Fold this protein.
Amino acid sequence: MDVFEKIWGANRKRTMETFGRRLLKLGEEFGEACQAYLSVSSDNNSKNKSWEDVREELSDTIIVAMDLYCHTFPDEKDVSLDTKMEQLHSDIDRKLKKWAKKQKKGDDFSK
């Protein structure tokens, strides 16, 4: 069983009523990843964070993002796990091609 299947099966109560709250949760998890990074990369590190904390918060971010992707949107009807996996692979392939073009142009987030 891959990660996407585990996330698909972990939350079977995805509804439009909970979508907004889960989207906000994504922002919260991303914020926690940023906080961990800021702490571990600072000279002070007053919160005593580690790179493991950064990875853990990024994992939470990925899980919530993938859970949101698993959502059946109003323009979809009875979407299966296989259909969602095909959509995800297609979307990621398309986005990675776009990202690769930007990397070649030098848009790599460096200073």
Notes: The mean pLDDT is 90.
